[in-house]
Amino acid sequence: MHTSQAKSPWLWxxxxxxxxxxxxxxxxxxxxxxxxxxxxxNTDIAFYTSLLYLPWVIKPLWSPVVDMFGTKRRWTVLxxxxxxxxxxxxxxxxxxxxxxxxxxAVMWLMAFSSATHDISADGxxxxxxxxxxQAAFVGVRSTFYRLATLAGQGPLVVLAGYLAVSLxxxxxxxxxxxxxxxxxxxAAFAWHQLVLPKxxxxxxxxxxxxxxxxxxxxxxxxxxKRDIWLILGFILTFRLGESQLLKLVAPFLKDPLEKGGLGLxxxxxxxxxxTIGIISLTIGGLAGGYLISRLGLKRCLWLMVFAVHLxxxxxxxxxxxxxxxxxxxxxxxxxxxxxxxxGFTAMMLYMIMVSDGEHKTAHxxxxxxxxxxxxxxxxxxxxxLQEYLGYQHFFIWVCVATVPxxxxxxxxxxxxxFGKK
Length: 421
Prior knowledge:
By secondary structure, the chain is mainly α.
């Protein structure tokens, strides 16, 4: 039997992509909820947690290093150990007087390790599976990635909420949550050390006569693509509204009514947004993928752009009415998340279309880096803007900020057959 097929993909593909999602969820979402619980201002939360995007923005710059040194298997397993250690460190420093900056520094190391793990794990996936199996397991990959998102924003947030109440100490509660996460990652490290196959093709890639020229040549080829300005405009503006909204959802849902929020407890947030919301997001993503496979990306684009952006009006309503019924709030969040999951499929497929060609992997990494840049920069100043405008006017502004995405959708060029099965 071929060495790459010696172990069933079911043994390692689900666990690998579950592990890939966890540190991203910690950096992007869990950190926002934790810092809100620990009394950090919205301005500081939005600015500093947005900076955690940076490793994902610039990961294309060091992706060749992963190719040139060691195997993808070794990179993947060792980086899981580094992530586990950094999660222990976050849990340990939360009791320090300067916990905010120290924990952010540790999370930056975790984010850097996680972004590098993405490169090695995605590369290993292509080496460890036959081509027909790669296609067959794409759905499994995305499902377990979503399940990790659900675990990170649902049960773990609920646990933090219950522990904070029972222990009377939010710092202690979040320390325990990070130790639980570290335990999960240590288990992933041990499991993957045991079950990951050792494909014959998994070896350091010999650099050509001029690796630096090859590296810059790959970037040059991307930026010489036809209609590159439309491509950049679409990728950078597609999430302009959402990039600002995402950083303020947890503060808005958790702030008391007199501050303009909805006054949810941490546990209620975990159920409403982290559980019901993420399930709706997953269902929306599956529905979006199915529709594109039937009709193609071009015919679905406008419907999907509306699906992503129109539900932002949910937050305009919630900030004006401030309903206290948790079931009503959960229903509105489910609508917003379904629309986002449904419509975001268009962006993922658009990036796949743009990346097609000789440097497919590197160009897809550049696309995801640009998308992360489009999330990071507006997110950095969204907290200050919200504190200046108040929640009601801030969410109206978010809806206005979606307009460039509609303009770019009208201009962008897509092959009518792309995306159809």
